[in-house]
Specification:
By secondary structure, the chain is of the alpha/beta class. The strands form two sheets. The protein has a six-stranded mixed sheet, with helices on both faces. A four-stranded mixed sheet has the order 4-6-8-9. Strand 2, helix 1 and strand 3 form a beta-alpha-beta unit.
Length: 252
Amino acid sequence: MAIVRETDPAPGVALIRLARPEALNALNLPMREALVAELDRIEADPAIGASVLCGDLRAFAAGADVALLAEKGSAGVQALGLPRLWARVFAHRKPLIAAVNGYAFGAGFELALLCDLIVAGPGSRFALPEIKLGIMPGAGGTQRLVRLIGRHRAMGMLLSGAPIDGETAAGWGIVTDLVADDQVQPRAIERAAEIAAMPPLAVEMIKQAVIEGADLPLSAALLIEQRNMQMLFDTEEQKTRMASFLARRGKG
């Protein structure tokens, strides 16, 4: 199996490893399906509050498995149902952190963009090289990247296929945390543990508001924010934490 759920590295944290090292973790169909299935199991597990998705030191994921696509026509590519699988990753209700070492190319980069945070090292490399194969990104590379870093930078990457390093990616706002290469996975786990310690429904409502509101007019997005914020006032966690805060302040 090329998707491995490793021993939980911290309370409330799941670690999922892309494990197809002979192909630099290139994403074939069984890997994508196994990833979605693992995320479904994590979503149903109340003990897990956040997850880390990683590869190995050479590659997060070097792209799609070209052998999966090379001989197919447009109908054959459509029949694979890849957008459906990626949509399920994006819709995962719990925070997902990409820990990127080495190559995050093509579909591997697009998978990282589906995550909520990206932790990477200076030795990481991000690219959308599909143009060199006579195709283009098809899992959000032309859309999510533009929204993240702007049209001109995104077009520079898309039309050249050239990689950028981790420092550049951090400067452009792709990478959340830039750390030493050997600290990528520990930092991602630390981030996930911090999130897992937060009230789970508040975490879910924040992620939902960000995702649902991202492409809406501001007025509509603010309605989602207000709806979710108000819903949290019916939770025991809100009552307990606010009461504790007021009690501590009173003692001060």
